[in-house]
Amino acid sequence: MTWDPVSEKLWKVLEAKPPKWGTYYASEVRGGVTGALLAQDAVTGSRHLLMRIQGKSDVRPDIGSRGVKLELRRLEGADGGLFADFWCADPAKDKLFGVMVDEVLGRWAAGEGSGPTIAGRVLQTWRALLSSESNNALSLAEQAGLFGELFFLERLCTKNQHALDCWRGPDGHPQDFVTGEWIAEVKSSMNSNSVFIHGPDQLDADPANSLMLTVFYLALGPSGRSLVEQVQRVRDLVGGTECERKLSVARYRDTDIDQYAETRFEVVLSRVYDVKGNFPRITRRGMREQFDDSAIRTLQYELLLSAIAQFKVEATSLKRFPELS
After folding, report:
1. pTM of the entire structure?
2. Best label site of 142, 180, 217, 303, fewest CB within 10 Å?
3. Span 247-258, pLDDT tens digits
């Protein structure tokens, strides 16, 4: 089943109504004097979560974020009165806004505070993504990298019910996946001879943990799968607010899908290497044993796969490690 924000279905109903001038189409999503309406501006098409309020005290207007705003608004008519208006001014962010609205409604129902107060907190949490200056779609190498991580995540879902929580790469962890049993750094390459290691931390971990370097050799071809299709497969399995947040941090946006649809990846080969002992790598700890590393700001090196063949292991021999073929 394709995942969508719950609110998306209601907005689709509102969008189907014939246009009229100067009013909102609305659907109630929470009753009572402090209830809420999902609404769409009949002129601009902008999406709104209108939350009824009795006073202004719990509404802190926030119009500084790019695309999504929180304002105070007075409406006339049958649904008239004073409202906190949580709304999206950028149609390209409608999908993301739907995720934010679902989070507000869910936390409100859970008793975490008033709707306007929660909306303000949610807006603060998502501000960095909303305000991102980068409008560039992912490069081919970046598409391949994200495809590989999502391919791994899809298969991990069959072994671990907390698979999405294990995906740490988008949040800046040195390795892409962390479980209580092993750590995995995932590399995708269209070069079958080598992979690039970025920084001294990617292949460094506490010796008590099993660190696995997982390599996918990808080829381009019509029989493969696009990044868009792979994203949808993951959404079907673990879709929701946290999934969308991680995809956004990874710079995947639905507004760019036309640029990804024609590029199709096929996983030709997968390999897993046990990073331990004398595995050839550069680590922060190793450098510090030899010299003061404070002058080294960035580091990248190429790792030849033929030189690490002795460290290859079978994924099936690893506890709860996903089947990759």
Report:
1. 0.64
2. 180
3. 988 989 888 888
pLDDT digits (tens, 9 = 90+) for 53-90: 877 666 788 877 778 989 888 876 545 678 899 998 87
User: In angstroms, rounded to a whole number, what is the distance separating the alpha carbons of residues 2 and 15?
Assistant: 20
CA 110 to each of CA 70, 84, 98, 113: distance values in angstroms, whole numbers, following the listed order: 21, 19, 18, 8
The terminus-to-terminus CA distance of the chain in angstroms comes to: 24
The C-alpha angle 242, 100, 165, rounded to 5 degrees, equals: 5
- Tokens representing 309 are 């063949």
